[in-house]
Write a structure and sequence with these properties.
CATH class of the largest domain: Alpha Beta
CATH topology of the largest domain: Ribosomal Protein S5, domain 2
Number of helices: 10
Structural class: alpha+beta
Helix content: 25-40%
Radius of gyration: 19 Å
Strand content: 25-35%
Shape: globular
Number of domains: 2
CATH architecture of the largest domain: 2-Layer Sandwich
Distance between the termini: 20 Å
């Protein structure tokens, strides 16, 4: 596969790509840019909770069709998968019919990058299916116009992400961990989270020496990463949604090495040393059926 963050099964006129979720092990929101966006600094990591996207070439029509097993997700031209497919066709100059079928597993509005990962998987899949020969950098250029998190998924499994999201430096995190994802069943809108952050903080803390050092390394240990873990959105988001803070505290009580909000929320995750500890923590949430709880691993890298 072109990119290690996505897996695929290929036939002559069709292909299935798996689009992984991400977590933010570090998320610093820095100064506001002239274009209105904020500069960010994040250490991002994929986890093995995946959407599944099937792409088929069609000789019966020359348009893009998209179906999804989640009826709450729009499948019109505003959908990120649809937009990614249209962008690939435009940049490649191809006119061809595409039938896309998306199976959603990653919760939406969850801070897990599901839509961005689906868009990246679309670009990766079509690059392979149409034999475009695009480099990762070319795919990231196309993806950047679709969303800030899209380029990361083209360089995953782990990377330092800066700027608006367009500056991606892959980094190796040695070994693996298990992650328990706890989604509360409601979304947190990113725009709202930024507004809450802007009104609640007095100023912008500069990037710490610890994070600067992480950003210069080509390989990291999980121990060093977890010692540096933080998310600037937590204080503002937890103030409005105290249930998310309770989830974080419960994960820590259950033995998580670190627990954090992912992205702007609403998912909270805990990092565990092994599968046994993670699954035990997952089971502790069984009495709260409104929660969606997943125990998943990070890709192994030894």
């Amino acid at each position: 596969m072109t990119n290690p963050s996505s897996r695929s099964t290929v036939f002559s006129t069709s292909l299935t790509v798996f689009a992984p979720a991400k977590i933010n092990l570090v998320l610093r929101i820095l100064d506001r840019r002239p274009d209105g966006y904020h500069n960010l600094w994040s250490l991002m990591q994929i986890v093995q909770l995946e959407d599944e996207l099937s792409i088929s070439l069609s000789d019966k029509h020359s348009s893009i069709t998209l179906q999804c097993d989640d009826a709450s997700l729009k499948t019109d031209p505003s959908n990120l998968v649809y937009r990614a497919a249209a962008a690939v066709l435009e940049h490649s100059g191809r006119v061809i019919g595409l039938d896309l079928v998306l199976a959603k597993r990653i919760p939406m509005g969850a801070g897990l990058g599901g839509g961005s990962s689906d868009a990246a998987a679309t670009i990766i899949g079509l690059n392979q299916l149409l034999n475009l020969g695009w480099s990762t950098e070319k795919m990231a250029h196309v993806g950047q116009a679709l969303g800030s998190d899209v380029p990361f998924f083209l360089f995953a499994p782990s990377a330092i992400v800066e700027g608006r999201g367009e500056k991606v430096a892959p980094v190796r995190i040695k070994g693996s961990r298990w992650v328990v994802l706890v989604n509360p069943g409601f979304p947190v809108e990113t725009k709202w989270a930024y507004q809450q952050l802007s009104t609640s903080r007095i100023g912008v803390r500069p990037l710490s020496d610890v994070h600067t050092t992480l950003g210069k390394a080509s390989a990291l240990s999980w121990e060093s990463v977890l010692q540096a873990a933080e998310n600037d959105f937590e204080t503002a988001v937890f103030k409005t949604h105290p249930a998310l803070h309770r989830i974080k505290q419960k994960l820590l009580t259950e033995g998580a090495e670190v627990a954090l909000l992912s992205g702007s929320g609403a998912t909270v995750f805990g990092v565990f040393h092994d599968a046994t500890a993670a699954r035990q923590a997952q089971s502790s949430f069984q009495t709260e059926p409104h929660l969606k709880v997943y125990a998943v691993s990070t890709p192994s890298d030894f």
